[in-house]
Design goal:
Elements lengths: L2 E2 L19 E7 L8 E7 L17 H14 L2 E7 L1 H7 L1 H14 L7 E5 L10 E4 L2 H4 L1 H24 L5 H4 L5 H10 L10 H9 L5
Parallel strand pairs: 2-5, 5-6
Antiparallel strand pairs: 1-6, 2-3, 3-4
Helix pairs in contact: 1-5, 2-3
């Protein structure tokens, strides 16, 4: 597995040549790119004695398969945790730092404390346990795959709920991403309370309507 060292100057968060024995948590996020909604992170500690077949990068799975695996992960994992960073936090901190915050919250929310945390990508949140960032970890590490599925399904469900409140934006279809349909809705209706005002397309929409991000 290809991995990167943490940029944080903490000795317990550099890549280790070996993993200590004990519980290992996988961590991933969903929702960094969309123009609206929270960024969501999940942390999962799988049960080696209760394996889950078909775990993979959530983006490679069909929505129906993700939904099925979501329920199976929640039922079979030793423990799991889902956390958010809000739109307000994204706008105040920036999307990278908000993502790190959501990941930290997810790990802290685990009822069992892992001895090691494996995070998808090349950045690490600030944690009080050893951690390793693994590029393409959601396709390589089952616990990270499980975390990616939980985060993705949770956020997609949020988009469906918000669609009922603001159907004019089409959140159920584009999940907050800057599709042509979404951009047309922004131009016609402006931004709603769930839009990330620090993101350029949203800020431009507000300015065009005489508002300010």
């Amino acid at each position: 597995m290809r991995s990167r060292k943490s940029s944080l100057p903490l000795p317990e968060q550099v890549c280790l040549p070996w993993h200590p024995p004990g519980l290992v948590a996988g961590v991933d996020e969903a929702g960094r790119g969309p123009l609206a909604g929270p960024v969501v992170a999940a942390a999962v500690i799988l049960d080696d004695l209760n394996p889950i077949a078909g775990l993979a990068d959530s983006k490679k799975l069909t929505p129906a398969r993700r939904e099925k695996l979501y329920d199976e992960i929640r039922a079979k994992a030793l423990c799991c945790s889902i956390a958010e960073a809000s739109v307000e936090e994204i706008d105040r901190l920036n999307i990278l730092q908000a993502t790190m915050l959501a990941m930290r919250r997810a790990v802290m929310g685990l009822r069992l404390k892992p001895v090691m945390v494996l995070v998808d990508g090349n950045r690490l949140p600030l944690l009080d346990v050893p951690a390793e960032a693994i590029v393409k970890g959601d396709a390589l590490v089952p616990a990270i795959s499980a975390a990616s599925i939980l985060a993705k399904v949770y956020r997609d469900r949020w988009c469906v709920q918000v669609h009922e409140e603001f159907p004019q934006y089409g959140f159920a279809g584009h999940k907050g991403y800057g599709t042509a349909v979404h951009m047309d809705a922004l131009r016609e209706h402006g931004a709603c309370i769930h839009h990330r005002r620090s993101f350029a397309p949203v800020a431009q929409s507000l300015l065009a309507q005489g508002d300010y991000p």
